Target: UDP-N-acetylglucosamine 1-carboxyvinyltransferase
Amino acid sequence: MDRIRIVGGNELHGVIPISGAKNAALPLMIASLLTDDTLTLENVPHLADVEQLIRILGNHGADISVNGRRERQGESYARTIHFTSRNIVDTTAPYELVSKMRASFWVIGPLLAREGKARVSLPGGCAIGTRPVDLFIEGLTALGANIEIDGGYVNATAPAGGLIGGRYVFPKVSVGATHVLMMAATLANGTTVLGNAAREPEVVDLAKCLNAMGAKIAGQGTSTITIEGVRSLSGARHRVLPDRIETGTYAMAVAMTGGDVILEDTDAALLDTALEAIRRAGAEISQTNSGIRIVRNGAGIKPVDIVTDPFPGFPTDLQAQFMGLMTKSSGVSHITETIFENRFMHVQELARLGAKISLSGQTAKIEGVSRLKGAPVMATDLRASVSLVIAGLAAEGETMVSRVYHLDRGFERLEEKLTRCGAHVERVSD
Ligand SMILES: CC(=O)N[C@H]1[C@@H](OP(=O)(O)OP(=O)(O)OC[C@H]2O[C@@H](n3ccc(=O)[nH]c3=O)[C@H](O)[C@@H]2O)O[C@H](CO)[C@@H](O)[C@@H]1O
Ligand SMILES: C=C(OP(=O)(O)O)C(=O)O
Model:
């Protein structure tokens, strides 16, 4: 099993290209099941989750081809992928495929809308909380679906004439359930109104792509989304938006090590709240012609309190990384996690590096220390893993991160991007 070896102490200087967003690419790929035409996605990141979803879509009958790679610094990245689901050959998404990642459950929306039925295993994904699917079930039921859970599978059927437009107000903001209901409603009879919908940029990106395919969606980016059902959708060409979580992660890495880095191909407007927190921690951040510039020279890291929230709040997917940064602040900071009830698995691993963190309910208290010391640590989930990398970059000596398959789900060529900026990071294959 691969591990990542980091020798800490180097500042980061240079340019880091930001990949397309995993959390946008996955629902966009799933949207291809809504049409018998070809959906072409540009800027798709090369990640374990994308490869797994390619297998899942293939199982439903999608014909998938990859081309148009972009070359940068001698390496190809940002793939263009064509998805064509002329016929759906199987409306079952089996446990073996779906248990590995949460987003694979989302095929339920397009399958139900296009084929009138879907049998999808209850999902897996990062172990960060219980992650139920009640909102998906309630929402699809509001569109006329009949849903039963049996043997670990969600069996859904649409009325004989197809799904029917309806009104559903989410009792709690859910990114995944917003994606699914938006996709399902595009082919429903009549108009659907979703209240308290997620406002995340990835939801807006999906709506933009669906509209390019002929859907009639309005209000994306606000908490009320209206979808007027259409008879069918066509193909389209769409570019996946930049990964705001990867952007924030590298910005925090630079704030941690010190240095001067340009983050290319990304957009500061996607992560205002997180960038503001990094600024308050002592880094200078500016938008330049070539990207977002992060500089920390000399000044120490200041303690900053944050609370995670749905967009436009501080993203839960950057909480672990920010905690990594705060371990070396000059005082006491508090981090409150409001989205997932068990997203503090990184605390005990950061402690191995010398961090001083105590937990009280959903809040972590971090007493900054002046030095961290390298140690063997274990990645417990995707964003937790990268928080250990951030801490390891500033720790004295060697940090060895095991179980990096978590990292490979969401960070494209991480060791290469960091090494080019002067870090000492390498993958060790046993
Ligand atoms: C692939 C992807 O895009 N994953 C992201 C997505 O996950 P995901 O879409 O799974 O997260 P949700 O927004 O649905 O979850 C938010 C909260 O709602 C709860 N909930 C959700 C659905 C449901 O039916 N019932 C219910 O109670 C969840 O347990 C959680 O407490 O948004 C999360 C919140 O920004 C991010 O951390 C994940 O990286
Ligand atoms: C939690 C994440 O992913 P997933 O929802 O697939 O578990 C994530 O991207 O941080």
